[in-house]
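User: Some background: our group keeps a shared notebook of sequences we're curious about, and every so often someone picks one and asks for a predicted structure to add to the entry. Today it's my turn. The entry only has the sequence so far, pasted here. Could you supply the structure so I can complete it?
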Amino acid sequence: MEKSSVFFSRNVERQAQIEICRSLQGVKVVKQGKYLGLPMIITKTNEQIFGFIRDKCQKTILNWRNTQLSQAEKEVLLKAVTMAMLTYAMSCFKLPVRLCKDVNSLIARFWWGEGKGKTKMHWVSWKKMTTAKKAGGLGFKDLQSFNKALLGKQIWRLLTCPNLLLSKVLRARYYPKTTLLSCELNGNALWIWKSLMSAREEVQRGARKQIENGKSTRIWEDAWMLEESKDDMEDAPLQWDGLQENGREY
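Assistant: Of course. Here's the predicted structure to add to the notebook entry:
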């Protein structure tokens, strides 16, 4: 409990806050802050809140500019360090498009280098650089697609692990009487839920429901499979936007 804290919206009365904290063994009230490096509360100005990601990437790349690096060394640093810095945030939130473009520009400028204080010419487009190496590209991740893939992986986890605390909380809050793939998006939902819902369509295209007792299956709306087709799907990969997981049923 000493590591815990509670956040109240402005609609909760002061006396109610005191009583709740007292019932929680004196847990402290926290305002806007960060947990594991991410903001706890996302407001409408989400681009400003996620600006620390851009600043962190820019600071890291600036530290490398004073060193003589080959193209191979630059590739390793950009893929193993810079892009890895974004992975945790992209697993929880949908980053603003403007932020993704800014980080892509930082990576591209560092890759092509600078001469006499000016950025050198970019001989190929960023889209070509994000193409797989076997297709003639450089294998850099397209941040928007990678962001959507990571969020889709979280949706898949909610579907296949319904007994997790996170699954129970989100189900009670957003889809108590329906399913994750068919619930409607509430306009006043939290940013993390809106982020997850932005990747739902990609998961729906690859997911199939295994028929058991059939009580929760809508025969005309849900994508489902018969029991005898389970073995055929066992080794089939489920893919969306570059993310690949072993075929599973929910």
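Suggested note for the entry: Residues 62 and 118 are 14 Å apart (CA to CA). Strands lie at 5-6, 28-29, 34-35, 38-39, 114-115, 118-119, 209-210, 224-225, 238-240, 243-245.
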